[in-house]
Amino acid sequence: MLKNKTADGVTHLEWVTKPEDAPIYDDSFWVKEQRWGTFVSIGADDKEIITSLTKELCISSTRWYLKAKQDGFEETTTHEGTVGGKL
To answer: Tens of pLDDT along 13-29?
Structure first.
């Protein structure tokens, strides 16, 4: 996506990879169907966000993710994937 500012200060978005007929959801992402039947959401920076099995799930998951990213994720504990000690 390219951002262009006009003389009145309004920013207009120009999507790089989005087809003309693809709808934009919440002014921040669009969804495309991949050739193997999954759906992927593409953000304003033209990077993939969420991959899902259905379009509806992709839209709702992307909305939740972007909202959580905007508000800040809750502090959670991380889990280590390595085994301590000698095997």
So the answer is: 566 677 788 888 988 89
**H or E stretch including 58?**
helix 55-71
Q: What is the pTM of this model?
A: 0.65
Question: What single letter denotes the amino acid at residue 47?
Answer: K
CA distance 83 to 25: 43
Distance CA 55, CA 38 (A): 8
pLDDT, tens digit, 9 for 90 and up, residues 52-73: 999 999 999 999 999 988 888 7
CB atoms within 10 A of CB 49: 19
Distance CA 36, CA 43 (A): 21
The pair phi, psi for residue 57, each rounded to 5°, is -65, -35
